[in-house]
Every structure is written in C-alpha cells, then in structure tokens.
Design brief:
By secondary structure, the protein is an alpha/beta fold. The chain has a single domain, classed as P-loop containing nucleotide triphosphate hydrolases (Rossmann fold), CATH 3.40.50. The protein has twelve helices and ten strands. The protein has an eight-stranded mixed β-sheet, sandwiched between helices. Helix 7 links the parallel strand 6 and strand 7. Helix 1 crosses helix 9. The two termini are 19 Å apart. It binds adenosine-5'-triphosphate (ATP) and magnesium ion. The site of magnesium ion (MG) has 4 residues, from helix 1.
C-alpha cells in the first residue's frame, strides 16, 4: 500500500481536482484499489460523492474510530470534516503531535493494506499540524500549482516543510526520522496559444523543469474545470464521448496520463 498526500500552501492550484481525477484514473484505468481521504476542512473532495457516514477523518484524529465509504468496486473514501483544524483537535498540546495519524496507521496498517493499493489524501492549503500529520504517513507529497511566481515560491516552501517534519519526527534513540515522504511537483492549468505555451507559462516551465522533482504539467482545460462541477472525472467523461470528440481531446488525454503515470512510478518507488 502506497500513500500520497497532495498539498501546497497556495489555494486554487488544483489539489482537489487532481486528487479526484487521479483517484478515478487509478481505479478505473489502472485497476488499483484506491482509498481517498479528504483531509481538507472545506471538504471539496467529499462533496464530489453522494455518500454519507457517521464517522469522518475527524474521528480518526480523536477516538480513532473510522468508517470507509464504498463508492465503486475500486474506489472508497473517508469523508472530510469542517472541524479538522489544529485548534479543534488541540494538536499542538499533544505528545508526538506530528505522529498522531502515523500511530493510527501503524495500528490499522494490516487491515488497510489488505483492502487498498493506494491512498490519496487531499489537504487544505496550509502548513498546519493536521497537514503535517498527513505528510508524515506518506510515501510522496505532491505539490500542484499553476504557472505563477507565488506557486513556485509555495513549492520551495513545501520542500522545506517536508524536511522540517522529518526533523521533528525522529526516533529519540536512533535519531532516525519516522517520516520518509519525498516531495514532487506538477504544473497545472498551462495555457497554450496554438502549439506554444504562453510567456508566463514558459517562464515557469523553464525554471521548474530544472527541478528533478518535476513530474510534468497539465493544461488548462474545460474538461478539468468541469470535473468537480458535474462530479465526473475527465476519464469518466471520456467514456461518454464520440470517437470524434475523443480524437479532438487526444493530446490532452495523452499528456495527463503521461503525468499521472509519472506520479504512479514515483509513488510505487521507481525513479522519476
Ligand atoms: N487543469 C485545469 N484546467 C482548468 N481548470 C482547472 C484545472 N485544474 C483545476 N481547475 C479549476 O481551478 C479551480 C481550483 O481547483 P481546485 O479546487 O482543485 O484547487 P485546490 O488547490 O484544491 O484549491 P483549494 O486551495 O481551495 O483547496 C477549480 O475551479 C477547478 O475547476
Ligand atoms: Mg482543494
């Protein structure tokens, strides 16, 4: 079982959209058994599904009890909760405040590992202890940003955040960190005129492409914007397209699957 947290301390870059679409791609196209966890208090990912449960991610942080909502054969969700904040959970005053979720996962690892190949966690755009707890259990942290200077700065800050969590969560005797997450980045909402990207996107790509943690970029596309409005991933939308429409969008699909395959490779422990 591999765990990915999607996070960056900048709003609106596409974290929830990509968690939703990648979750559907992994389960529908790659036949992986996927568990989504909505770790963002605005609960955008949860709202994409017509499901309800008594327990949410908040209960995992408080009583440890959990409820998994079954969406399709291969896709499940642990619902988000607006109470998922450091203050509500009083995380700052707890012992091992970075490792609360880590301890829960250790306790439940076997039963989760039997059911799931991949866990995708969506987060709020912040550097809270809640978010740090998600990063602490992850194999990879995926930053998602649009082509902006602020987005690039947020990516640099994300790398530092992950390193800081590693330093905080060490085993006292061996001094080894419990946290092994590696940070990666994708660009999102790239804009084209004809076959070329706009100047802003080009400037962003010129810099980000130098980073070995860069896994590719996804273009700005109405199919993506629509996915969390009609609650259908771009891959589900593709299934309802005519051959002509599929052909029209072929380049977009080829590219997003290339990017998602790159993410899957590093998530499964391969080289980028
Ligand atoms: N590739 C894309 N093409 C077009 N629109 C996109 C794309 N990716 C995301 N969007 C749109 O951008 C907006 C922000 O996306 P999203 O909510 O996924 O970002 P987020 O990082 O989760 O934001 P927040 O920080 O608020 O949680 C949404 O309206 C979404 O539909
Ligand atoms: Mg979001």
């Amino acid at each position: 079982m591999k765990i990915q947290t999607t996070n960056i301390d900048k709003g609106g870059g596409g974290k929830s959209t990509h968690t939703f679409n990648a979750g559907d791609w992994l389960s529908r196209v790659k036949n992986k058994r996927v568990l989504l966890i909505d770790g963002a208090r605005e609960c955008n990912l949860t709202h994409a599904f017509d499901i309800t449960s008594r327990k949410t991610i908040y209960d995992i942080f408080t009583t440890g009890e959990y409820e998994i909502c079954h969406i399709t054969d291969n896709l499940s969700l642990i619902r988000g909760d607006e109470r998922l904040t450091d203050e509500q959970l009083d995380l700052a005053s707890r012992n091992n405040k970075y490792l609360q979720l880590f301890m829960w996962f250790s306790e439940h690892y076997e039963e989760l590992d039997k059911q799931f190949d991949i866990i995708l966690i969506d987060t709020h755009n912040d550097k809270s202890l809640v978010t740090a707890n998600f990063i602490a259990v992850s194999d990879i942290v995926l930053g998602v940003t649009d082509a902006s200077t602020n987005g690039f700065r947020a990516w640099l800050a994300l790398k530092q955040f992950v390193e800081a969590i590693k330093r905080e969560a060490i085993e006292v005797i061996t001094k080894k960190s419990y946290v092994t997450a590696e940070a990666y980045i994708i660009g999102n909402k790239m804009e084209y005129y004809g076959n070329n990207v706009t100047d802003t996107c080009k400037q962003f790509l010129d810099v980000i492409q130098e980073d070995e943690a860069y896994l590719g970029s996804v273009q700005k596309k109405e199919l993506m914007a629509k996915s969390l409005v009609i609650n259908q991933s771009v891959f589900e939308q593709r299934e309802n397209m005519t051959e002509k429409q599929k052909l029209d969008h072929q380049k977009f699909y080829g590219n997003i699957e290339y990017v998602y395959n790159n993410i899957l490779t590093v998530l499964e422990g391969g080289a980028a």
